[in-house]
Amino acid sequence: IPSKVRGRFRLEVTETTSPVVVGDRVTLRLNDDGTGLITEIHPRKNELKRRAAGRRIGMVHMIAANIDAAWVIQSIRQPKINPGFIDRFLVMAGVHDIPAGIVFNKLDLMKPADRDAVFFLCDLYAGLGYPVLMTSVKTGEGLDALAKALKGRVSVVSGPSGVGKSSLLNAIEPGLNLRIGDVSQKTQKGRHTTTYAALYPLSFGGFVVDTPGLREFGLVDLDPSDLGHYFVEFRPYLPACHFPNCTHDHEPGCAVKEAVERDEITPERYESYLNILHSLRLGEKDVGR
């Protein structure tokens, strides 16, 4: 039903790009012409959001609300895996208590030279407790596992342009007929085909939110001093830090840094943490990617 939002919602909500987001539960008043007017937006159990980019910088871009799971999609090639994007997504999901998982797509493009790096990341995130799937639309590998993970839930799939989000959804739910695009051979970045977030029913049960490709994932609702809590492997060491507000950067007596030196925390994840910490301290003016 084509619907508009009552004007007072736009006046009341000024810090976000839209007062209504995919997944919202609303009260709708039907008009005589078949359109609707949203008269009430019900409280959200959670929301996935990021810092708005471009001309809307300083605002918050709402991705979805009232979701049961969030999946970040990465492609093994074309474009290549971006661990920094993954970590930012996992942090934001953690801030809002949304279970998150990772899909490494385009498995059919993996070359022998990629194997060590790809399986290192798979083992790393799986070892941290995140569900990890490997998929290929071309060969069908992992599609049943993805469908099983989405079944009976309201799930969001998100990631950079070109990683194959829409192709994956078309493969597990052929009737969707979502537009798909190519990857620029020059930049190895995807071209936007999904232009807005939309909620689709799944024939095997559940709903999925397909989102536009994101070039960056700026964090909101997070103080730099709290970032360490959302790197799950840091948590056992946090109580042992000398300073209760330790940021695990320059402070002496930091149990997290000592764990990195003992190889109990991977240097890759620690470096990712420092990159995000730096961006948060700068107010995300140089959002990491």
Give a structural overview.
This protein is α/β, with parallel strands linked by helices. It folds into 3 domains: 41 residues, no CATH class; 161 residues, Rossmann fold, CATH 3.40.50.300; 58 residues, Probable gtpase engc, domain 3 (Ribonucleotide Reductase Protein R1, domain 1). Helix content is 24%, strand content 19%. It contains 7 helices and 11 strands. The chain has a 6-stranded mixed beta sheet, sandwiched between helices. α2 packs across α7. The longest helix is centred in the C-terminal third of the chain and has 15 residues. The chain is globular and about 70 Å long. The two termini are 37 Å apart. 32% of the residues are buried. The C terminus is likely disordered.
Topology overview:
Layout: E1 3-5, H1 7-12, E2 26-30, E3 36-41, E4 47-51, E5 60-65, E6 69-75, H2 83-95, E7 100-105, H3 115-127, E8 132-134, H4 143-150, E9 154-158, H5 165-172, E10 198-201, E11 207-210, H6 255-261, H7 267-281
Parallel strand pairs: 1-3, 6-7, 6-9, 7-8, 9-11
Antiparallel strand pairs: 2-3, 4-5, 10-11
| Strand content bin | 15-25%
> Helices and strands, in N-to-C order?
EHEEEEEHEHEHEHEEHH
Averaged pLDDT: 88
Shape: globular
Largest sheet, in brief, is:
6 strands, mixed
- Name of the top-level CATH class of the largest domain: Alpha Beta
Number of E strands: 11
How many domains? The number is: 3
Q: Output the radius of gyration.
A: 20 Å
Question: What's the architecture of the largest domain in CATH terms?
Answer: 3-Layer(aba) Sandwich
The neighbouring-strand order within the major sheet is 8-7-6-9-11-10
Count of helical stretches = 7
CATH topology of the largest domain: Rossmann fold
Low-confidence stretches: 183-192, 285-289
List the quaternary state of the chains: single chain
Helix content: 10-25%
So, the CATH homologous superfamily of the largest domain? P-loop containing nucleotide triphosphate hydrolases
